[in-house]
Amino acid sequence: MRRLLPLAALVLVAPLSLSALDWPVGRTIVTATFGEDRTDHFHNGIDIGGGEQDVQPFLPGELVFRYEENSDYTSLPRGVGSFVVVHHADDIETVYCHLKRGTIDPRRTTYGARDRIGVMGDTGYSEGTHLHFIVRDEQSASYVNPLSLLPAIADAQAPVIRRVALAIGDQVRTLAPGAIVPSGRGTVLAEIYDPRADVKFLWPMAPYGVRLSVDGKEIARVSFDALQVVEGRMVLRGTRLASRDVYAADGMMRCGEVDLRPGTSHLLLTVRDFAGNETSRELPFTVRD
Amino acid sequence: MRRKKPASGFFIAVVVIILYFILFPHPLGRELVARPAWTLSLPAAESLPPGGRSPDSPAEAGRPDALQRPDALQRPDALQRPDALQRPDASERPDALQRPAAFQLGDTFGYVGPSGRLVHVEKTLFRVALSEAGFVNYTRIGSDWVLRDPAGERLFSFAGRGYPMASGDGARVFVVKTDLTGLQEVDRSGEVLWNRDFPSMLTSVSIEGDHLLAGLMDGSLELLDRTGAAVFTHATSGSRIPVILAAAVSSDGSRLACLCGIDPQVLTVLGKKGASFAETSRTLLSAEFRKEVRLLFSPDSRYLVLEGDGAAGLADPGSRELSWTPLGGSLTGVSFLGRARAAALLARGESSWRLTIAAPLSSVLCAASFRATAAFLGSVDGQILLGIDGRLLRVDVEAM
Questions:
Q1: Taking a contact as any Cβ pair under 8 Å apart, which residues of chain B between 128 and 167 contact chain A?
Q2: Which residues between 160 and 189 in chain A have a beta carbon less than 8 angstroms from any beta carbon of chain B?
């Protein structure tokens, strides 16, 4: 808990200095959220679209590390393209990735709130102009969901639960209201999207939180607040859940495990996005031996 | 429009280098003699077909233009011997010495044999994971990669979300996660051997044999063994902002080094102590780097080369000595010359390149500047392999 205090203090201080904590770009279209599935790892920041534009620090800070694709030396391939790491007060660090080549000022070592870090670009492993924005809390050695620190943006669209399924052994069957399923231990899978009005393509953006209840009892809850490495594995902070524990091979989310005993059960899946919009799916089903 | 590169610039550079070596030889116990062994032209990158070209004829090894020096340069020593430029053919040497050397010059890479035979040449797609034993020429977006041998023949394929990386000797192949948070190693059948996430972003990686040293943005080092398990971790301290700007492990695994921290920046060397490592030296530097810089041990693990601001630091961790060699530009390549116990350093200045040969902790033995768009410094058969604008040159430096 003590380790979370600096971050909590930062959040509390933010409203007092409205100009200090800000989105790193002027036009903000969030195109990928924190914690999304990246095949073998979680997305450790957010992606921001909106076209080529100046990138500014979300707080004043000091340059820690920069890499300019095609000109700076590197001992390893860097999928983040040209990028800059900025150190802020309270051991917070922010990372600005895929910057346009040649737009990082090599002489600058400090950044004021309105100083340009670079220009949003498409360098590295990137399929379009965007900014991959990362927030690190160095004291707790965590990647923090940037949306928990940035000023809120309007989002009136609730998440979508497209399909709920039950995996028992190797069998995966869609769970519809009134379904009959065999007894045993199963995993509840769900195909979930968090659409946004300003994102015109269907991208499986991760919701902020998922809650699973069976017969009125909460059996699992996942929140994409922060990521941390435990014993060489990136997990959701406070859990042992790595990306492969949260996402199945087909991208469906593993919402929790249930003991299926003969009788009638009632499953409630609730999904929430960062703006607080919620969607629920209630599924009564019957378990038979 | 393709710019025609004047051949005269190249020859002037070669002549200047030779002049320097001949007119200003520094004592190294014995006389240091440098002689060009061969030169060859590379095909223009634009003319290369996808997948590259593996010429089957010895390129220009020993061709006349490498030897067309003014008579004045033909010293009465090694350079005048009839066989001076006709080195024994690679096929007459032990296998270890026949291995072709990798080169990367501009957007072209490939392999050249010790006697100057061009084994393979290919245009870089986006980047290339280049090693002595093979390469992965990869695109910017992709997840399926192919490792090829120096002749361009497919060895095996593998997949992973990230970019491929090979150890210098080519014995180990990795995938670096796109966001720099983790690594995985694949075996020769493309199966993932291990997968490791790091507490902070990777800033620097050094691989030697079974040892992999990872430097992280949070100022810590992780030494991984062949299974990907961390056998040693070290958190640097003493700087206002911790960060690893360079990490190096020696070839025998007995030493680790890192350049770390901002305000102050520190060169730290750790030596093996039992099953762990302990700090053996800590040198405060006046540098203010905020990007990765070059740091590497010599092949015999004895010396350490560190990139400085317009200079290279040559250190002997055993004696804790560090001397700086001015380069007149940023260090872009280092090559150790085994027999001469010297280091060749290539630096890029604002308008020219500079090749410097220095004896560790001693003096600059010789230096030469030349103009070029692209240059490369490597080693072939323990000698200098220099690339200058579409041409490769082998320079042998030996104590006579």
A1: 129, 140-141, 143, 160-165
A2: none
Whether residue A85 lies within 8 A of chain B, CB to CB, comes out as yes
pLDDT of residue A1: 41
CB atoms within 10 A of CB B319: 9
Q: How far is B158 from chain A (nearest CA, A)?
A: 15
What is the average per-residue pLDDT within A151-172? Answer: 90
Q: Where are the alpha helices (DSSP H) in chain B?
A: 7-23, 64-67, 95-98
- Three-state DSSP state, A193: strand
Question: At A13, which helix (H) or strand (E)?
Answer: helix A5-13
DSSP string, A216-234: TEEEEEEE-SEEEEETTEE
In DSSP terms, which residues pair with B139 in a beta bridge? Answer: none
Average pLDDT over residues B382-400: 90
Q: What's the number of CA atoms in the CB half-sphere (13 Å) around residue A233? A: 13
B358 near B364, Cβ under 8 Å?
yes
- Taking only the tens place, the pLDDT of each residue in A86-106 is 999 999 999 999 999 999 999
pLDDT: which is higher, B380 or A200? B380
Q: Could you check whether the bond before residue B264 is cis, i.e. omega within 30 degrees of 0?
A: yes
What is the tens place of the pLDDT at every residue in B335-351? 998 755 789 999 999 99
pLDDT, residue B86, reads: 34
CB distance B119 to B133 below 8 Å: no
Length of chain A, in residues: 289
Inform me whether the C-beta atom of residue A122 falls under 8 Å from chain B C-beta atoms: no
Residue B31 has a pLDDT of 64
Question: CB–CB of B163 and A79 under 8 A?
Answer: yes
Share the mean pLDDT of chain B.
85
Give the whole-angstrom CA distance, residue A85 versus residue B245.
13
Beta strands in A54-108 (DSSP E): 54-55, 61-67, 82-87, 92-99
- The whole-number pLDDT of residue B261 equals 98
| Closest to B135 in 3D by CA, of B124, B248, B95 | B124
Alpha carbon distance B167, B155 (integer Å): 16
Contacts of B202 in chain A (CB under 8 A): 76
- 0.95 surpassed by complex ipTM: no
Residue A185 has pLDDT above 90, yes or no: yes
Sign of torsion, CA B194 B198 B204 B208?
Answer: negative
Tell me whether residues A65 and B290 touch, CB distance under 8 A: yes
Contact A93 B332 (CB under 8 A): no
| Number of alpha helices (DSSP H) and beta strands (DSSP E) in chain B | 3, 31
For B124-198, where are the E strands, in sequence order?
Answer: 127-130, 135-138, 144-148, 154-159, 162-166, 173-177, 182-186, 192-197
d(CA B189, CA B13): 45
What is the least distance, in Å, from the CA of A142 to any CA of chain B? 8
Is the Cβ of B332 closer than 8 Å to some Cβ of chain A?
yes
Instruction: Report the alpha-carbon distance of residue A277 to residue A160 in Å, rounded.
Output: 10
Other beta carbons within 10 angstroms of residue A152's beta carbon come to: 9
Q: Is the dihedral of CA B19, B23, B27, B32 positive or negative?
A: positive
Burial B275-307 (b: 16+ CB within 10 A, else e): eebeebbebebebebbbbbbbbbbeebbbbbbb
pLDDT tens, residue by residue, B87-136: 334 344 444 446 899 999 999 999 999 999 999 999 999 999 999 999 99
Distance CA A44, CA A135 (A): 8
Q: What is the DSSP letter of B30?
A: B
Q: Which among A63, A79, A229 has the least Cβ separation from residue B197?
A: A229
- For residues B340 and A204, give the distance between their C-alpha atoms in angstroms, rounded to a whole number: 60
